[in-house]
Amino acid sequence: MSVIYAFVAASLFGCGVYMVLSRNVVRLLLGLSLVATAVNLMIFQTGRIRSPQPPLIPRGASRLGESADPLPQALILTAIVIGFALTVMFAALALRSYRDRGTLVNAGAGPAEQLGDPFAGGTGDDG
Amino acid sequence: MMAETLVGATAAVASSGLALWPVAIPLGAAAITLLLRRRPALQRGVMEAAVLLMLTASVWLLAHVAPGRVAAMAFGGWGAPFGVTFVADRLGAALTVVTGLVALAVTIYARAEIRARRRRADFDPIFLAMLASVNGAFLTGDIFNLYVWFELMLVAAMGLVTIDRRPAQIDGAIRYAAMGMLGATFILIGIGLLYGATGTLDMASISAALAGRGPSVTLTAAAYLLFAGFALKAGLFPFFFWLPASYHTAPIAASAALAGLLTKVGLYACLRVFVVVFHGIGQPTVPGLSVLFAIVAAATMVLCVLAAIAQIDLRRLLAFHIICQVAYMMLGLALLSLLGIAAAIFYMWHSMLVQAGLFLGAGAVGRATGGYDLRRAGGLMRERPLTAALFATLALSLSGIPPLSGFWAKFLVIDAAFRGGAMWLGITALIVGLLTLYSMSKIWTDAFWRSPPRPGKLTRQVPPAMAGAVALLAACTLGIGLAIGPVSSFARAAAVQMLPPATAAQGAEQGTQQGTQPAAVERRRQPAAMQAAAVDGIPQSATAGRAP
User: What residues of chain A lie within 8 A of the CB of B249, using their CB?
Assistant: First the structure.
């Protein structure tokens, strides 16, 4: 079971890294999401896949028996929420950039690098 | 020993709320300002009041922890190995005070720069959320919580960079966001591996669990991944390209806040994680980190100062200097000695104030000359002598001229390097210091000294709010420079308090052998306070469920 998880996480990582290297902003975003998913799977693994029992101490007992580790699941939930916020923010930026420039491909120096570039004859006068 | 532990716990519990306020105040005010979007005057008032309150709370917290106490707070009553804790020691509390000072200066400056249109674009709530996340990162005792604050910081910073929705800002924010998300991923993998190895996320508990453990593949991978993530956030070589491609596109009030605060949080995380969690001093848990830190610091320093010299846009020039300054702190950390860490801590305080001040000063220059292009500026010394004097103070501080704080910061780092036997690092730092002075003198001759390139074009008035904000930070750097004795010994005390108990004694010995005055070793520190706090949180037997 663990080996399958490891393989899935590794292949997601590989695909994600390949897409992050693209110049297309949407592929970059999808790649970052894939990498984030791979990391989530990996964190899930750190809790060890052991028991399907919920981590509740039974009434009258004082020890927690064999159970699943709840902390990685809480971590993954938090990471998913944060990742969602960042992905939405990034998608909004990509959309805005597409409307400004008419392209999603980020080849060469963008407007940010041209602003005040000492070698392009650009000026820093914008505000 | 047991009695001492209990004393530590009661001291911590009695004051627990204090550690929360520097985060809770800006976070609450961010929500309030968001509701006041239709009333810009009131919104600004709430923002300014919140910044003042936050600074007061931070000063109070610092006054509380300065004698060596630790203000800890466990959320929901769940103590150290399970719950999320806030722990304010000297380092964290002092950094929140510096954050408060930078925030105050930016708030004053924003009165002149952030007008109705930017207020409507939610400058106030985003700025407050950024302050909350910076303070949260400085005060949290939980490594996953640290990651959460990093992400919140990234979202807020993107909001500040894109406040005008200009194409350059959107483009800069995309570069920033992509690199920031990738860095956060590295941090998250590192945290996951650490959790797998120790079964806890609390930094003090991880440190205790790793004490005496030999090198292993998991720990090495975790350490290097965490370093990659933090170095990316701090803008260190080879991950610094996003910073000069995005910071200069934001309005000056926003870029000053980013310049002063964000990269230093990355470095702070390096300090905490590699010194405390991985036992950097003494017997390191992970081999090879010191060499890597040294190479990264030296490469960042040299490359960024050379890149800064080539710039003609004042904001881009200063953006490269931010990274160059972070490299000096990294150098202090790379020495992995008590002196080096104390120097890095002192450098961090100095650098946060001076970097923000220089960006605000650049804004004043831009307002006076109508742009940030150094080739078109000139004549400010004659026409705007006050702005010139204030900018010169900060520029000289950055280049390390006595009696300003920058001289002492560089002196402490380079002194620690020579004492630690790292000759080549010390010499590199000296040469880079000289080049920094050259770069600053270039700004001075271009913008202030020479007569304007287009004669007859008069400079514009600098609003008092802008000059006042720069003056506040210039006064801070001068004040630290003059009160160097108490401030540097406080930095040293903060470094001693930060070390894990086992290594603190060694570090203090090492410090005394090297010929400086012995510092009292603080016995009452985080792990003791937090382990005791854990006792009433949850039955100890619950740990039996997971054997790491």
Answer: 112, 115
